[in-house]
Amino acid sequence: MENVEEVQILPLKSASDGCENHVSSSDKPQQQQSSQAKPSSSKRLLALAFLLLLIAVITIVILLGLLASRSCDNGASESDGLQSRRSPKSLTRAVYLDESGKACQHQDIRLPKSLLPISYQLLVRPVLPSQGQKTSVNFGRVKMMLNCSRPTDAIIFHVGAGIRISDLTVTAAQRLDEVSRQRCPSLDLLYIRVSRQCTTGELLNVSLSFEREIEGDKLDGFYMAKYKDKNRALRYMASTHMEPVSARKAFPCFDEPEMKATFDLEVIRDWRYKSLFNMPLARTVPDTRCSHLTNQSGCHRDIFQTSVVMSTYLVAYAVLPMDYVSLQKVVKTSRGSIQVGIWAPSSSQNQLDFAMSVTEKVLPYFEDLFNLSYPLPKLDMIGVPQFAAGAMENWGLIIYRFSTLLYDPNYTTTIDKQTIAEVISHEIAHQWFGNIVTMKWWDELWLNEAFAVFTQYIGVDAFKPGWSMMDRCYVEFVASALQTDSLLHSHPIIVPGLSDPNEIESMFDDISYFKGSALIRMLDAVIGRRTLKRGLIIYLNRFAWRNAASSDLFAAFSEAYMLENGDSGPHANSPVRNLTRVMDTWTTQVNYPLVTVRIRGNKLHFRQERFLLVPNATSIWKSNQTSRFGFRWIVPIWYVTDRISEPRWVWMDLEEEKTIELDHQPKFVKINFNQTGLYRCSYEQSNWRELIRLSREGYFDSTDVAGLLNDAFTLAYINRLNISVPIELFETLQDDHLSSATPWSIAMHKISEIGPMIAGDQQAMTDLSKFIVKILNRPLRNILSKKEAELTHMERIKRQTLNQIAVMVDEPLVTNKLFKMYQQWRANTSFPLPPDEIELIYEIGVYKGNTSDWQFFKNRLNEIESYSEAKHVCSALAMSSDVDTNYRLIQSLLNLNSQEAFSIAAKLCRRSGLRELVWSYFERNWDIMMERYDMAFTLTEVTKFPAEFHTEYDYQRLSSFFANRDLQSGWRSAFQSLESVKANINWIAHNLDDFKSFIRQKASGL
Ligand SMILES: [Zn+2]
């Protein structure tokens, strides 16, 4: 599944408007950014600036912007302090109760392995709303064939909330009668005791009918969505989202990734719809069970081919109105051919080609890369109006948000176009990572997601080599991993002992996706791409159609390393010979190291320590976390000096300190060359000065400058470095040595973290704005002087980024030009606007305009057909500078569907003065939200909203609120928000005055 990353645009109205969140580069649940600027009333544009910057930064940095991170600890026991703040549900889960309040006979989240499913025969008959009827319901019947692997008289499987079952029968070769039945809602389990034990190898058939409402607000299981077609008529559809634990909400099943089986599906639908499944349609026959149809001759039954063996979370089906159209193509591969279909409403029929061009390149490429065939005869991809994640990799039927599938050349920005390619590549990579080889259990989700994230870049790199995708890794996921994993309340990549569905949901976070992929990137740098590919081929082919664990993967890499290098190789005597030992220190420990290097004569002295954003976090939260590695890591360190230009290696093998001797006395040292290591770096002040000088001369490339900026700002944030270092490093960007915008994205993200804390000081805001305008001057003019046709992909992204920063700081050249374009366009909407600037133009129009401009966009939302434009319009609607408009918008949040409500809220939260209002609204309506929406994925984002609060009052208020709520899957991110607030408080206490005076000094010299 793709998260994600990451988020920019907020939907405003209902599904039929086509508003939706902008999504990150992966299928991860939607991320909400929470940076903000706190503007004084007289400097509102600067506030806008920070907001827009945020959007820009988020767009560019994708998920980097999260101040909060999430997760709890596990490679370590929890402290009493943390435990006491965990959600009440978590605390009371010691005994699971059945519907009548008695203890469940099965108390484990895991199913017993005595009965294993072999096949499912599933029939569904969805009834979607039609004229005069608003409710919808799904009737179904399932027959499960089970293999008795060890004798038992208990049949235990998942039945999700809201499912009503009837006509349950159990059959076998010899008679079996049901003796008792118990339903346990807290574990979604049905427990049936039968009259005798099965015998090993005996086959059992469990058949039952079921019925469940098809809901619209809860975006999982089998759910309904609506949209407006090109004639503005309302259309209904229904589709699935099962991962991780929602297949049980669609139909009764053995809902664990390791319990793979085949699936046969039949869909009974009326003639006005069509249906899709993981597998191709075998045939359609007449049926007579469409009870809502007056003319039964319009009732059809679609019968699909039997699926391959797969996990329940990958099952997918959709019932679509005839308005849906598809672009079909037979994609040839070196091993055969695959029928590919890209599906969307007819109004978007001309926006499917880009997705097809990505797919027809990436699908055959991955097949060759992994030396393993794509095993299905077809691959369908459909865009749907409402989706909790960015996309979902269902085998043969990938489901996307519109924004991650449809490319509209008139409205899709360069960054969004790249995001579409990344998400498609990510989901196709999952057809191997996750679908063919699946993790054994959700505690190793990273095996699915981290590889999909890393290989999405390899796939897009193959699709468009000129996009320099591998250079974007640092800014798009490594920086996010470093941010999230700097909190005490982070968690190890592998979290053994997940014991609650909420804990499973909470695994879909930056750690599984981004820390995992950053770790693979580090491994790639250590063992080399050739060895990495060989290891992946071994792993995928060895465990095809089965499940695997992290240790299986590391063993495959070790084997590949030996096959490639024998006993020699570049690391013959290094820890790399035992990769499992190396990787264990990174996957089973929370956080990562800060590596400090000092020059002493001709020696380099290294020291590693656990890095925490709140240095005294363990005492504040009374943590008793422990680690079998003592919070030390096996760290590969790449370094260069003034006399060593080709990076050399040194390993810290769980040592706290290490000294090496060089053949020269270096003037400087730069470690973590190309930022491939998953750690932060610290130098002595004199060394930093030398690195600043070299950056000014253009000595380092974009990734290293981005890494230096990230580390310097972060160390200054925690008072380990003078603020002058990151600011002067940032100043080196004014010479425009670098073609990429990534250092800008990192620097502005870091500055935007500070924005909210100085926003009350108009002088400081003015100084900061003036300073940034000065740095921006030459790079901005250089990029704007280039002709459109001459710009590379990277330069387009740079232009988009610098434009956004320019608006943020009220740079007159850009803001005046964009506002003028807005006025011309308002006078005549056929005036062409450049896609990369439309969003800024719309936002400036609303911000500088009046309520009639806001109303204009609100009305426009009902007229436009492009989902890409709808995204920009929604973004603009959240930019009003009118107090009443914003207030009414906040008060109407609960009238929207969950995806829209939380997307808008996230955007409003980034605006000065509105964050408080939004959060107060959530606090007042918390219980209603929990009841109305399925908060699973959303909660982890909502609980991050307050991460930018920065007063002791805020901290106490949040602590109290979180302590008294059932936070479900949001409990980790709630604690991370608290930790971020504490970090902000610390920054104000130690750095605020120094920062202001240094910026004052810089600005007054202009
Ligand atoms: Zn994914």
TrEMBL record:
Residues 354-586 form the Peptidase M1 membrane alanine aminopeptidase domain. Residues 117-314 form the Aminopeptidase N-like N-terminal domain. Binds 1 zinc ion per subunit. The keyword Acetylation does not apply. Residues 1-38 are annotated as: Disordered. Gene3D superfamilies: 1.25.50.20, 2.60.40.1910, Neutral Protease Domain 2, tricorn interacting facor f3 domain. Zn(2+) binds at residues 426, 430, 449. The record marks 513 as: Transition state stabilizer. GO terms for molecular function: metalloaminopeptidase activity; peptide binding; zinc ion binding. One of its GO terms (cellular component) is extracellular space. CDD domains: M1_APN-Q_like. One of its GO terms (biological process) is peptide catabolic process. Its cofactor is Zn(2+). Residues 668-982 form the ERAP1-like C-terminal domain. Keywords: Aminopeptidase, Hydrolase, Membrane, Metal-binding, Metalloprotease, Protease, Transmembrane, Transmembrane helix, Zinc. This is Aminopeptidase. It comes from Macrostomum lignano.
